[in-house]
Design a protein that fits this description.
Elements lengths: L7 E9 L7 E3 L14 H13 L8 E3 L6 E3 L7 E11 L4 E9 L2 H19 L5
Antiparallel strand pairs: 1-5, 2-3, 4-5, 5-6
Amino acid sequence: GLVSGEGFATDASVIKADANRQKGVPGDEVINFLDTESASRPIREYLEGLDKENARTTIPKNISLTDPQSSWTAATGDRAFYAYSTNYLIDIENNIILDVEPTPAHRTAEVNSTRKMIERVEEKFDLKPH
């Protein structure tokens, strides 16, 4: 077939978020977009799930108020901005993209996305790097 499965590589591209640089708060500031006490049970459960899924091990420098899932980054070496990463899992023998996983532009998220992509490719296509 087109894919050998002998080896995989990952690559990430930084995508600028549609978030104003000026509309952010320090990462250690608590943001309450919704009063969870008055929210319905399904909304509280949904928000709790998001919090668990997006738990960070480090406190971000800034959080966007318009796009809080994006990350503050200076990955391009220019002025810092809010961004995401598109992470690609690639078969290195034939340069075929096997999977894509978007994440906030943060190294830890990129590493975790690699694990997710490898697991998905193994499950979907029965391919695992040797």
